[in-house]
């Protein structure tokens, strides 16, 4: 589809194990830089809609191309043959997206939550890309690891044993679980209260929470279950030095419960080129809660003309 101002394309990027990653590209191939945005766990590329809207004038002016994609098993992307999934696998998926949709020229990467971890995995596996192709990185509400801990008591030990069993049951009986989920849809006040309590800060509007709840409701039971252990196993602290050759913007909400401020603090300490911004009144969903700040950070990363 083409408009008078902005070229818009839809792609399916095939990974080595057969997953098809649904991607959208806005802007001209001749733009001087491509911005690639990776979303978080149980979300989809729509989680970047507000940032994309703020970047639309830059795209229309030919200042950048914008690439967004659904992580495997999320949105319109398929699963592929890999089992189990891992954050390292997502890093390889991002490499496939770059090869297919931004094979040349400068690139700026933005990652929210699991998307930020994806960028760290890319840097660990393909350090040659950082500084050569990748000229800047935005890490939003994310972490390099230590998201899980050894069980500290009998209850946690029992939870550790039961979780894989419960997860396997949920996937095997996904239709039944989805039926239960439909009984409390995103339009339900209870559903939105839970989502707000977990993901958003005090300044979030009801519309923000409603849109976030709708995006997450589109995720399958399998996406919830399969990626949970992958997040716990994620550990890329040793790879952060690879990002130190390019400018890095680190942003986090001051009331982020999933990847608290201390995780972003560790990123900023480990990456000498990082600039840390702690945003008051916000939680884990900064691309929605403060898209202006996230957009400004991305613009600061764009290479000079």
UniProtKB/TrEMBL annotation:
Alphabetized UniProt keyword annotations: Oxidoreductase, Peroxidase
Domain AB hydrolase-1 intervals: 35-296
A GO term, aspect molecular function: peroxidase activity
TM spans (from-to): none
Entries under InterPro entries matching the protein: AB_hydrolase, AB_hydrolase_1, AB_hydrolase_fold, Epox_hydrolase-like
PANTHER family: AB HYDROLASE-1 DOMAIN-CONTAINING PROTEIN, HYDROLASE, ALPHA/BETA FOLD FAMILY PROTEIN
Protein name per its UniProtKB record: Pimeloyl-ACP methyl ester carboxylesterase
Organism: Klenkia taihuensis
């Amino acid at each position: 589809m083409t408009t008078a101002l902005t070229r818009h394309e839809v792609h399916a990027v095939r990974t080595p194990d057969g997953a098809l990653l649904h991607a959208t590209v806005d802007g001209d191939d001749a733009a001087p830089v491509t911005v690639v945005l990776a979303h978080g766990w149980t979300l989809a590329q729509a989680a970047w809609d507000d940032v994309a809207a703020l970047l639309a004038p830059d795209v229309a002016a030919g200042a950048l191309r914008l690439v967004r994609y659904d992580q495997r098993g999320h949105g319109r992307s398929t699963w592929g043959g890999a089992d189990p999934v891992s954050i390292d696998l997502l890093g390889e998926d991002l490499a496939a997206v770059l090869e297919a949709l931004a094979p040349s020229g400068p690139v700026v990467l933005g990652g929210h939550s699991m998307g930020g971890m994806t960028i760290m995995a890319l840097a660990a596996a393909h350090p040659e890309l950082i500084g050569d192709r990748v000229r800047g990185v935005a890490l939003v509400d994310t972490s390099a690891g230590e998201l899980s801990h050894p069980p500290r008591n009998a209850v946690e030990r029992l939870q550790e044993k039961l979780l894989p069993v419960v997860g396997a049951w949920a996937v095997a009986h996904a239709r039944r679980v989805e039926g239960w989920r439909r009984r409390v849809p995103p339009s339900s006040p209870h559903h939105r209260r839970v989502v707000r309590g977990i993901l958003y800060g005090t300044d979030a509007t009801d519309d923000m929470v409603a849109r976030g709840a709708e995006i997450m409701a589109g995720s399958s039971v399998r996406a919830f279950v399969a990626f949970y252990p992958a997040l716990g196993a994620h550990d890329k602290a040793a790879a952060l030095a690879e990002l130190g050759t390019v400018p890095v913007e680190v942003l986090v909400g001051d009331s982020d419960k999933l990847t608290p401020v201390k995780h972003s603090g560790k990123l900023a300490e480990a990456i000498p080129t990082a600039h840390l911004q702690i945003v008051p009144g916000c939680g884990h969903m900064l691309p929605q809660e403060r898209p202006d700040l996230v957009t400004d950070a991305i613009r600061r990363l764009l290479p000079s003309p």
